[in-house]
Write a structure and sequence with these properties.
- By secondary structure, the protein is mainly alpha-helical.
- The radius of gyration is 22 Å and the shape is globular.
- It comes from Orycteropus afer afer.
Length: 318
């Protein structure tokens, strides 16, 4: 009955994680906690990298945009999922689904691009420290960020156009907590996959180039760091590189696993849990990972908390 009803409507039905009401409430609560933690952590990074003059280097400039992307990408999927779980209603309109696909694919690709730029920044800082200020000129950094956002927008436009140009003739039931592109494409009975294959091939090649660029950057970084005579120098270099390497590895490995694993008609809970690892967990963990061993970040945060302006804002809220 549900399949028949949803087939005749213009929207889609997001199945989420469970039909059990108690589990839906629990999922909404956990997502809300993670969302609030993500908002707090990434907003703090954006604020301190903007206000603190010591953090106006290219590394923190790129980190600020990574935090902005993290805030954006989690805001595309999680609030909608929380609302669906609390309301016990998985319906999402055609327009909402289209916007979700556009913004999710835009921010996801932009995140891959910014992580690639950040790896190059660390490569220049460690392998060519004397030429760092010339190579990573502020104007070059601004153009790099513009390219990141433009490339994300192109990915969003291509994915949205090809996905919603196909004919949906099956029951519009999506076995996910958001409008996932592979799940949407499974609802099609159209034989015209030329555009879809072309976009997938193009983005796969670009993603492979980013992956190779990151890998080569870190091969050069580690070979340079291990040749450093000073233990303090090696420790400082690793403290700025390892958090980024962990973020890159976590985001790309879970994303690649999701892309390569075979799609099933009714994904198991394991498949949904994997999707959390590349959609929800990275934006939540990134602020913690980047701040944990970064003394400049921790010092800037303490300075912000102890500042008079912050105290006035905090007291005014109470």
């Amino acid at each position: 009955m549900i399949s028949a009803n949803i087939t005749s409507t213009s929207g889609f039905l997001l199945m989420g994680f469970s039909d059990i009401r108690e589990l839906q409430i629990l999922q909404a609560f956990l997502f809300l906690v993670m969302y609030l933690l993500t908002l707090a952590g990434n907003l703090i990074i954006i604020i301190i990298t903007t206000l603190d003059q010591r953090l106006h280097s290219p590394m923190y400039y790129f980190l600020k945009h990574l935090s902005l992307l993290d805030l954006s990408i989690i805001s595309v999927t999680v609030p909608q999922s929380i609302d669906n779980s609390l309301m016990d209603d998985g319906y999402i309109s055609h327009g909402q689904c289209m916007l979700q696909v556009f913004f999710f694919t835009t921010f996801a690709w932009a995140e891959v691009a910014i992580l690639t730029v950040m790896s190059y920044d660390r490569y220049v800082a460690i392998c060519f420290p004397l030429h760092y200020d010339v190579i990573m000129d502020p104007n070059i950094c601004k153009w790099a960020v513009i390219a990141v956002w433009l490339s994300g927008s192109i990915s969003g436009i291509l994915n949205t156009t090809t996905t919603f140009s196909i004919t949906f003739c099956r029951a519009k039931i999506i076995h996910h907590f958001f409008c996932d592109v592979p799940q949407l494409r499974k609802l099609s009975c159209s034989n015209n996959y030329l555009g879809v294959f072309g976009v997938d091939a193009f983005l796969s090649v670009m993603a492979f180039i980013c992956f190779i660029s990151i890998g080569l950057s870190y091969i050069h970084i580690f070979s340079t760091v291990l040749r450093m005579p000073s233990a303090a120098g090696r420790s400082k270099a690793f403290s700025t590189c390892l958090p980024h390497l962990f973020v890159v590895s976590f985001f790309l490995s879970t994303g690649i696993f999701e892309f390569l694993k075979p799609n099933s008609e009714s994904p198991a809970l394991f498949d949904l849990m994997i999707s959390i690892f590349y959609t929800v967990m990275p934006p939540t963990l990134n602020p913690i990972i980047y701040s944990l061993k970064n003394e400049a970040m921790k010092g800037a945060f303490r300075k912000l908390v102890l500042s008079r302006k912050f105290k006035k804002i905090f007291l005014s809220c109470h």
